[in-house]
Amino acid sequence: MSTKGYFPAWVWWTRLLAYLLLVVVAVVVIFPIFWMLISSLKFTQELFVKPPTWIPQRPTLSNYISIFKDSLFLRYFLNSLVVSLTTTVITIIIASLAGYGWGKTNFAGKRATSLFVLVSQMFPLVVLVIPLFQILRRLLLLNTYPGLVLAYLTYTIPLSSWLLKGFFQEIPGEVIDSARVDGCSHLTSFLRIALPLIRPGIAATVIYCFIMAWQEFFFALSFMFDDEMKTLTVGILGFMGQYKVSWGQLMAASFLSVLPTAVAFFFVQKHFVAGLTRGAIK
Amino acid sequence: MATVRLKEVSKVFGKVMAVKKFSLNIGDGEFIILVGPSGCGKTTTLRSIAGLEEVTSGEIYIGERLVNDVPPKNRDIAMVFQNYALYPHMNVYRNMSFGLRLRKVPKDEIDKIVKRTAELLGIRELLDRKPKELSGGQRQRVALGRAIVRNPKVFLFDEPLSNLDAKLRIAMRAELLDLHTRLKTTTIYVTHDQLEAMTMGDRIVVMNEGLIQQVDPPEQVYNHPVNKYVAGFIGSPSMNFLDCSLVKKNGNVYVTSKGFSLRMPPESIKKIEKYINKEVVLGIRPELLDCTQTVKDFAPETTFKASVWVIEPLGSEKLCHMKSEDNALVSRLDPKVILKAGDTSEFCVNMEGIHIFDPETEETVL
Question: Is A175 in contact with B103 (Cβ distance < 8 A)?
Answer without folding.
Answer: no
